[in-house]
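Budget justification aside, the reviewers requested a transparent look at the raw inputs and outputs of the sequence design task funded under Objective 1. We therefore reproduce one unedited record. The lines immediately below are the structure tokens for a 86-residue chain.
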């Protein structure tokens, strides 16, 4: 499936969640999702973010999706807090 962001929205492929290996089982609902990811698609009115940039998102923002087993989030451009540079 191919999903294209529209308007001022950005499609972000979320980074994998860090799993605890101490042997304690924590329900999925209590695990905080990662707030970093890589931009996969940008809408036609997005000005500050480009494809393939690694970004930091505001927690609990956007719409979470799972496509082909991979987690994505669609957010408004202003919910992106910054770029992550290596």
């Amino acid at each position: 499936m191919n999903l294209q962001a529209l308007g001022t929205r950005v499609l972000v492929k979320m980074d994998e969640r860090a799993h605890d290996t101490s042997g304690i089982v924590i329900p999925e609902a209590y695990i905080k999702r990662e707030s970093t990811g890589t931009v996969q698609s940008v809408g036609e009115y997005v000005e500050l973010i480009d494809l393939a940039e690694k970004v930091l998102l505001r927690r609990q923002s956007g719409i979470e999706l799972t496509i082909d087993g991979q987690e994505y989030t669609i957010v408004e451009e202003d919910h992106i807090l910054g770029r992550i540079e290596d």
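The chain is about 0% helix and 40% strand. The beta strands are 9-14, 36-42, 54-57, 63-67, 70-76, 80-83. Computational costs for records of this kind are itemized in the attached budget.
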